[in-house]
């Protein structure tokens, strides 16, 4: 089964994308990856050192399951990066490429490089974000101890932010309880998972400002824990109150339907997840997972 959580969009560096990238992204959304790749290859023939073209080609290749080819483009983007921010962006893309290949170790290695960039800018929040992102990939791929370590690191780094506002502090505490609950559930410690679920709920209840942004992640958590507890109807009920556009949530819902013997409904959600076009942790796990489910 699955595990993971995402609480914010990962940071992006740089400005507007060139027209050919936007066109390629549209083709990808239309289910035309070959045409999109041809567009990127044409751009690279005209300009072999085009960072946007290398990043776009790498992203597309990950989405179609060609990670080795994707990482050649991301390495080129790292080598060509004109400044530290661009290099960090390419390193994060490389981390996500390894995530699409299910490799926790390599993902952590490249996320640490991005964290070093943020350490240089004294941005503790983004350091914490990257640590959590690494943890997310590891828990999704079954390395629970490494996931726990990096979630704890993310929590500790985030709280180092000078003059941290109360809602930001609550956010990190909520994320930490959320993560501990999921790790416990994956390890079969359902009592521990329920304890952390209650703690997460208490944090939401005590900080309405933070809860306005993060409350949607609570039914994801309760549904997730219920799924591992074997309460599939409760899991489905809770997950249907989570973010329905998240491909990871779509996979969890698919799993719940599958466990309930509703294979057609499960396939419906796996199809949604398999069509994701993002290059982030939810898609990195959900796209290959859902396609394997549909291929059975």
How is this fold's topology laid out?
Layout: H1 19-29, H2 33-46, H3 51-63, H4 67-80, H5 84-100, H6 104-120, H7 124-140, H8 144-158, H9 166-186, H10 190-206, H11 208-214, H12 217-229, H13 232-239, H14 247-259, H15 263-274, H16 281-295
Helix pairs in contact: 1-2, 1-3, 2-3, 3-4, 3-5, 4-5, 5-6, 5-16, 6-7, 7-8, 8-9, 9-10, 9-12, 10-11, 10-12, 12-13, 12-14, 13-14, 14-15, 14-16, 15-16
Number of beta-strand segments = 0
Helical residues, percent = over 70%
Shape: globular
- Average pLDDT: 94
Main sheet specs: none
**From the helix content, strand content and strand pairing, which structural class follows?**
mainly alpha
Task: Please tell me about this protein's structure.
With 296 residues, this protein is mainly α. Helix content is 76%, strand content 0%. The protein is built from 16 helices and no strands. It has helices at residues 19-29, 33-46, 51-63, 67-80, 84-100, 104-120, 124-140, 144-158, 166-186, 190-206, 208-214, 217-229, 232-239, 247-259, 263-274, 281-295. The longest helix is centred in the middle third of the chain and has 21 residues, at 166-186. It starts with 18 loop residues before the first helix and ends with a helix. Residues 1-14 have low confidence and may be disordered.
